[in-house]
Design brief:
binds magnesium ion; alpha/beta; binds adenosine-5'-diphosphate; single chain; seven-stranded mixed β-sheet
């Protein structure tokens, strides 16, 4: 069974796509068979891996979710032998609306992965999902299909804003739709050592979330922002850069949490309620409750970006 990990945070510009692409590539560099599923209509993970979305307009994640195309037919190679990608499509923004009417709308991605698991042929050790910046049906599909979620938090003033809502939603999904769902950890991104605020955020988040936070902190590094325009993960663009080295180190931590001896410990920790303990008690286990909770959220991410 693959470890399925959603890279999620409903805020935009916090480093989800950068983390999805570079963590997937770094785990693949350790010769694990990795699939990256691009679930964001913007398709930045696809283009960041050099996939020309124009070439795959009839077989991509949109068709998997809406037309129930077998995901096996929507998987493409990348510049790394062990890394494959299931690309996104602009139409995916419409999928959020089309799915509202669909039967088992929150289970589409889960069903696709189960079919992949049952079928002959390609098997993956890790599946990463790059989620869109909202808590809509696409993110719901991702969290329903995953065993773990990993939250990138940007080292800036409002880092933890919205995190309570995200954890609350994840807990509702765990209770109602996906008992297997656990938090894998929080990764701090875009750290700037010259900036006091950046250092304060690291201290505060580590104090609050303790060992859930990965030791590796991803620095702000220009190679990380340049590499997508070359269609490459940073390790194929500049392997010696601090950005590349930090994602390789994060990959080691992820592999250790999932395959290493400290696995049980991590699982125990991640099952502890993290915040807002009181509000996540005794919620009904019905999808309707969850869906009410996750109406389309504003995409207020632009100001957090580093463009
Ligand atoms: N560690 C980093 N150093 C420099 N730029 C970064 C870093 N992480 C992300 N970026 C840049 O910040 C912007 C937002 O990152 P992105 O990964 O697309 O966020 P999200 O997917 O959460 O919206 C992008 O332009 C990206 O290249
Ligand atoms: Mg993104």
């Amino acid at each position: 069974m693959a470890n399925i990990i959603a890279i999620a945070n409903q805020k935009g510009g916090v480093g989800k796509t950068t983390t999805a692409v570079n963590l997937a590539a770094s785990v693949a560099a350790a010769e694990k068979k990795v699939l990256l599923v691009d679930l964001d209509p913007q398709g930045n993970a696809s283009s960041g891996l050099g996939v020309d979305k124009g070439l795959f307009t009839d077989k991509n994640i949109y068709h998997v979710l809406i037309d129930e195309l077998s995901i096996r037919d929507a998987i493409y190679p990348t510049g790394l032998e062990f890394l494959k990608v299931c690309p996104s499509d602009n139409n995916l923004s419409g999928a959020e609306i089309e799915l509202v009417q669909a039967i088992a709308r929150e289970l589409r991605l889960k069903n696709a992965f189960e079919e992949l698991e049952r079928s002959e042929g390609i098997k993956f050790d890790y599946i990463f999902i790059d989620c869109p910046p909202s808590l809509g049906l696409l993110t719901l599909n991702a969290l329903t299909a995953s065993n773990y979620y990993l939250i990138p938090l940007q080292c800036e003033y409002y880092a933890m804003e919205g995190l309570g809502q995200f954890l609350h939603t994840a807990e509702l999904i765990r209770k109602g739709l996906n008992k297997k769902l656990q938090q894998l950890g929080i990764v701090l991104t875009m750290f700037d050592s010259r900036n006091n605020l950046s250092r304060q955020v690291v201290t505060e988040v580590k104090n609050h979330f303790k060992s859930t936070v990965f030791d590796t902190v991803i620095p702000r590094n220009v190679k990380l922002s340049e590499s997508p325009s070359h269609g490459k993960p940073v390790l194929l663009y500049d392997i010696s850069s601090t950005g590349s080295q930090s994602y390789l180190s994060l990959a080691q931590e992820v592999i250790k949490r999932l395959e290493g001896t400290d696995k049980v410990e991590t699982e125990k920790q991640s099952l502890k309620p993290l915040t807002e303990e009181s509000i996540i008690e005794d919620l009904p286990e019905i999808p309707a409750e969850i869906l009410n909770d996750i109406g389309p959220t504003e995409q207020k991410g632009v100001e957090y970006g580093n463009s």
